[in-house]
Design brief:
By secondary structure, this protein is mainly beta. It has 2 helices and 12 strands. The strands form 4 sheets. A 5-stranded mixed sheet has the order 4-5-6-10-11. A hairpin with a 2-residue loop joins strand 8 and strand 9. It is globular, with a radius of gyration of 19 Å. The C terminus is likely disordered.
């Protein structure tokens, strides 16, 4: 059984054809398999969609907050446990993916930076478009940032290198509670 959908947006037309047991194919005017726009919100939406699909494929029920102001983008529920997840879209640069645990936004008063409060999220899901994979890390296990290697480093360094393969699967057990110190709970720019 084959189904077909025709879409039109901004003067451009696409045809999406899919087989019941196969992958859909897309064709049309100016079709590019990569994301057409590079707007920050579009990237975030794509990362969240990929994280959702990855978690559902792993057997989790995925919940979305009813507000954009929550510190997490989605919640994965499985085995009687809830996991708050913040999603980051990050492209690979020089064979690595880097994430700073902070939020940056701009308004009429300028650009603002706020460190992630690790008591408000359990995991960060990093979606990398070059590998089309999601990687799951606990911010409590790292300092202010983390760098994952997608490709081996040119100098063959192995000590202290975090390979993406170690972070590919979402943990199936709850993370142990994190003991916070007074210094960890102080908020500030970072």
């Amino acid at each position: 059984m084959t189904c077909s959908i025709q879409l039109s947006y901004g003067g451009k037309r696409w045809q999406i054809t899919g087989l019941r047991s196969g992958e859909p194919t897309v064709s049309g005017q100016n079709y590019r398999p990569a994301m057409a726009a590079h707007h920050t919100k579009d990237k975030g939406d794509l990362g969240t969609a990929k994280a959702y699909a990855d978690l559902v494929a792993s057997g989790f029920t995925v919940l979305f907050p009813a507000t954009e102001h929550a510190p997490f983008d989605l919640v994965a529920y499985g085995s009687g446990q809830f996991h708050r997840i913040q999603v980051k879209y990050r492209s690979s640069r020089s064979g690595a993916i880097s994430v700073n645990f902070r939020s940056v936004w701009a308004d009429r008063h300028g650009t603002h930076t706020k460190r992630v409060d690790i008591s408000e999220i359990d995991y960060v899901c990093i979606y990398c478009p070059e590998t089309d994979q999601c990687y799951y890390i606990r911010p409590a296990d790292h300092r202010q940032s983390v760098t994952l290697r997608v490709q081996p480093s040119r100098n063959a360094q192995e000590k202290g290198v975090l390979e993406t393969s170690r972070f590919r699967l979402f943990p199936t057990t709850a993370a142990p509670p994190v003991a916070l110190t007074t210094a960890d709970t102080t908020s500030g720019a970072g």
